[in-house]
Amino acid sequence: MTDDAPADQPGPGHAAIIMDGNGRWAKARGRPRSFGHKRGVETVRQIVEDAGDLGVRYLTLFSFSTENWNRPADEVGALFELLKHYVEADLEGLARRGVRIRIVGRRDNLGSDLTAIIERAEDRTRDNDAFHLTIAFNYGGRDEILRTCQAIAREAADGRLDPDTLDEATLGTHLDTVGLPDVDLMIRTSGEQRISNFLLWQAAYAELVFLDVLWPDFSRQDLARAIDLYRQRSRRYGGVDAGAA
Ligand code: IPE
Ligand code: IPE
Ligand code: MG
């Protein structure tokens, strides 16, 4: 392979998306931010289908961050309601299509009705393996790592874990994302170019793609474009390209 030839590697097994731009999309139409979030759910429905068609097997979507509590209470409430409605309305259809659903993030301050809905969705789809949809809700990468450290420290204090044998794989089994492969491709919509505390551990070697499209406008073509960009990247993991001198 010459230096300028595209690497043309296989598509991403695990794509993670920071779904950003709902507020700006609504503002441009003179509507409240919650209107943009509602339209954003329609994009989620479409992209879950498209991702499978385009060869993605693991799709992880950032829908509410631990920092999003800083928004006005009515917007936070609207985002909670949208997650509830989405899971309740789509669970059965997704389950029948072989989708395994996981919700990652803090649970202790979500409220008992949302927690029950989440647990039901995870239980109902636990044996599915055709496609893995993970929704990061009340999620922060630092918060997840902190909770993981607490769990590991507790095990060590109880004498159930020897600190000297702790390795990356064992740490990974304590993360919310246990069972998911590392992120291959991380996409952020809306033109912002930052991670905003998403999947800090899991995306250590993810390829990053920033697209200048607001989430409600994000289409199958945009996802295909991000996957094309990913396929042209050369992932070296600190090494050198195969065939390099
Ligand atoms: C949706 O986009 C992402 C969420 C945090 C729910 P935003 O609500 O951040 O939209 P912008 O960035 O203000 O346009
Ligand atoms: C990141 O978007 C969180 C989600 C997409 C759920 P934000 O809009 O909250 O991030 P910042 O504030 O622009 O970094
Ligand atoms: Mg935003």
Walkthrough of the structure:
With 245 residues, the protein is an alpha/beta fold. The chain has a single domain, classed as Decaprenyl diphosphate synthase-like (Undecaprenyl pyrophosphate synthetase), CATH 3.40.1180.10. It is built from seven helices and six strands. It has helices at 22-27, 33-53, 73-96, 112-124, 141-157, 168-172, 220-232; strands at 14-18, 58-65, 99-104, 131-139, 185-188, 207-210. It has a six-stranded parallel sheet with strand order 3-4-2-1-5-6, with helices on both faces. Helix 4 (112-124) links the parallel strand 3 (99-104) and strand 4 (131-139). Helix 3 packs parallel to helix 4 (112-124). The chain is globular, with a radius of gyration of 19 Å. The model is unreliable at 1-5 (pLDDT under 50). Bound molecules: 3-methylbut-3-enyl trihydrogen diphosphate (2 copies) and magnesium ion. One 3-methylbut-3-enyl trihydrogen diphosphate binds next to strand 2.
**What is the terminal separation in angstroms?**
12 Å
Write down the Rg: 19 Å
Stretches where pLDDT falls below 50 for ≥5 residues?
1-5
> What's the CATH architecture name?
3-Layer(aba) Sandwich
Q: Level of helix content?
A: 40-55%
Cα shape? globular
By CATH reckoning, the class would read Alpha Beta
Tell how many strands the DSSP assignment holds: 6
**In percent terms, what proportion of residues is strand?**
5-15%
How many domain regions?
Answer: 1
Mean pLDDT: 96
CATH homologous superfamily classification: Decaprenyl diphosphate synthase-like
Helix count equals 7
* CATH topology (fold) name: Undecaprenyl pyrophosphate synthetase
Secondary structural class: alpha/beta
Strands side by side in the biggest sheet = 3-4-2-1-5-6
Bound molecules: 3-methylbut-3-enyl trihydrogen diphosphate, magnesium ion
The string of secondary-structure elements, in order, is EHHEHEHEHHEEH
